[in-house]
Amino acid sequence: MKNIRNFCIIAHIDHGKSTLADRLLEFTNTITDREKQDQLLDNMDLERERGITIKSHAIQMDYEFEGEQYVLNLIDTPGHVDFSYEVSRSIASCEGALLIVDAAQSIQAQTISNLYLALDNDLEIIPVLNKIDLPSANPDEVTDDIVGLLGCDPEEVIHASGKTGFGVENILKAIIERVPAPKGNPDGPLQALIFDSVYNSYRGVETYFRVINGEIKKGQKIKFVATDKEYFADEVGTLKLTQVPKKSIKAGDVGYLITGIKTASEVKVGDTITDALNPTQEIIEGFEDVKPMVFAGIYPVDTDEYEELRASMEKLQLNDASLVFVPESSAALGFGFRCGFLGMLHLEIIQERLEREFDMTVITTVPNVSYHAYTNKYPDNMILVNNPTDLPEPSTLNRVEEPFIKASIITKSDFVGPVMSLCIEKRGEITNQTYLTTERVELSFDMPLSEIVFDFYDRLKTVSKGYASFDYHPIGFRASKLVRVDILLNGQPVDALSALLHDSTAYGIGKKMCEKLRKLIPRQQFDIPIQAAIGAKIIARETIKALRKDVTAKCYGGDISRKRKLLEKQKKGKKRMRLVGNVEIPQQAFMAVLKLN
Ligand code: GTP
User: Fold this and answer.
1) pTM assigned to the model
2) In the predicted model, is pLDDT for residue 143 greater than 70?
3) Rounded to an integer, what is the distance from CA 388 to the centroid of its chain?
4) In 3-state terms, what secondary structure has residue 589?
5) How far is the C-alpha of 18 from the C-alpha of 78, rounded, in Å?
6) Nearest residue CA, atom 5 of ligand 1?
7) How far apart are CA 309 and CA 301, in angstroms?
8) pLDDT at 587 (0 to 100)
9) Whose CA is nearest to atom 16 of ligand 1?
10) 380 assigned binding-site residue
11) How far is CA 99 from CA 96, 155, 412, in A?
12) pLDDT at residue 575, rounded to an integer
């Protein structure tokens, strides 16, 4: 155990975590040149395209240092707030963390939030000043920032470049010298922490774990504490570039486990693995069931594809335990599913995977967060509102609560004004303002989650000219004045266009929605009135004027082939449209509420 080091890399997005991880793997000969591939750890197609690490992984390196052989386990952490729970479990599996800071960008919001997570878990922090090869690098100033943040000596900050490989040897030396070896009792009852799992269609779910006490052996009967299920450890091993089966994985080490589990939801990140016959009495703290934060309806464009959509969603859920869905029906769209996601990025990923991997064309309705509603009749009975149609009638409604977050924003001092205005517009309340340096300020706000899941991040980037970073965590439910804004087309309410909005913004947004829909819905043979309403009260109105001419009219003269071509073209254009009553609505209309500015 004394020669094992478990560490993770924490960084703000794009500060070079994946690139540096690749350099470590090369330097320790964990990957050969032939296997070398950019951003090796991001092996899902989507991940690579988006340039973000969506799922955490682990990899083991062997490294000889001063005549001794060391085992270094690098546990990768995802960089996006949607996946912050996974970050926290990866961090809990380590004794040390490389804190990567971009030498041009300095400390950003996720640098700090990840650092706090690492400090909460008593990790040894090794600060790394990365990208020092950049002409725009500011090594002295950024080192000062890091020293100010950590209270360390400037000499402790390692200068490095993932691009050129500079400093990599020093990083490895620091990992060995500064990160403590794991503690734990190798002879105690098995206690292992699940920090990740990956679905493999051939082998079932692969569970990644860190052994705290005892050992996990091939063939052993084990138990997952939170789910209380027992399995046989069909295969255990260490994670190199490929999986290396072993007879056992001992206290302090990291490995994978295959038990033949076929559904991702049976393996819960944060759960404890123990021996079924001699279970540990201690469970590892901090287990949480991952809760979806954003809900939206997903419907097939073609109503005949409902069953196919169900099958596709079930398959997706097998390998993504954080996706939840229940059937729902909409008067406008027919049968579909109400789905829960970790955040907007997760929603986009699922939508994209449905289209790419399953060839489904779907319509996604206006997303909303989850609210708690109470009626006058049963004021103590909480109703979970994941769908606008679940909100009780205004006259029967006692109160509503909505989820709040603590947001942390780091920006240049020049932009404090615009950032504050934006947060106040988004119903934020400032709780703290700290000057990290004379140039850089950290602002803390309590804000409703609903205000940030949609366009907040883009707006923040705009008002700060790109110089603001942002992170958040949930802080519970608070009272809210929530209303449901319904949209009527041609006098008919279209349930799939309803949105849950705060009273103070409902009128403005209702009006903008009508304007936007007028532009998005194609003209038809008749006038279409668009109205926004709260209950029976109309709050806004627009009209889509009727088409004046038949589109095929200019093909008079009977060139039938040309006419057919035009009609074919129209048909294609219709693909992403849904006929609601007698009005055709394109997909963008359902998401219009998200992009009103
Ligand atoms: P996420 O996984 O999205 O959090 O990003 P990351 O932190 O892993 O960053 P990544 O390694 O993907 O690097 C982000 C960008 O910075 C890429 O375009 C890299 O090519 C570039 N980059 C990384 N390290 C260096 C470096 O040392 N010097 C220079 N000049 N560019 C670098």
Assistant:
1) 0.75
2) yes
3) 23
4) helix
5) 10
6) 14
7) 10
8) 72
9) 16
10) no
11) 9, 15, 21
12) 55
- What sign has the CA pseudo-torsion 420, 426, 430, 431? negative
Q: Is 34 exposed, middle or buried (0-12, 13-18, 19+ CB in 10 A)?
A: exposed
Q: Please report, for residues 94, 139, 342, the alpha-carbon distance to residue 292 in angstroms, rounded to integers and kept in the order given.
A: 26, 40, 5
pLDDT of 573 = 46
Contact 159, 126 (CB under 8 A): no
Confidence of residue 574 (pLDDT cuts 50, 70, 90): very low
Q: How far is the CA of 85 from the centre of ligand 1 (A)?
A: 23
Strand bridging mode 371-375 / 397-412:
antiparallel
Q: How far apart are CA 221 and CA 219, in angstroms?
A: 7
Q: What is the pLDDT of residue 216?
A: 97
Q: In this structure, is the dihedral angle defined by the CA atoms of residues 202, 208, 213 and 215, taken in order, positive or negative? A: positive
Measure 87 CA to ligand 1 centroid, in angstroms.
19
Tokens encoding 537: 């009260």
State pLDDT tens for residues 356-385: 888 888 888 888 899 999 999 999 999 999
ipTM of the complex: 0.96
pLDDT category of residue 304 using cuts at 50, 70 and 90: confident
Q: Are 70 and 62 in contact (CB under 8 A)?
A: yes
Ligand 1 neighbour 167 (Cβ under 6 A): no
51 lines ligand 1 (CB under 6 A): yes
**Ligand 1 neighbour 515 (Cβ under 6 A):** no
3-state secondary structure (DSSP) of residue 588: helix
17 Cβ inside 6 Å of ligand 1: yes
**Arithmetic mean of pLDDT over the chain:** 86
Half-sphere exposure of 373 (CA within 13 A, CB side): 26
Phi then psi for residue 359, to 5 deg, are: 55, 40
446 appears as a binding residue in the annotation: no
Distance 197 CA to ligand 1 centre (A): 25
How far is CA 530 from each of CA 512, 535, 586, rounded to the nearest angstrom? 11, 15, 15
Distance, C-alpha 480 to centroid of its chain: 25
Dihedral pair phi/psi, residue 291, rounded to 5° = -110, 135
Q: What is the DSSP string of 145-208?
A: HHHHHH---GGGSEE--TTT-TTHHHHHHHHHHHSPPP---TTS--EEEEEEEEEETTTEEEEE
Closest CA to 121 of 188, 210, 247: 210
Q: How far is the CA of 14 from the centre of ligand 1 (A)?
A: 5
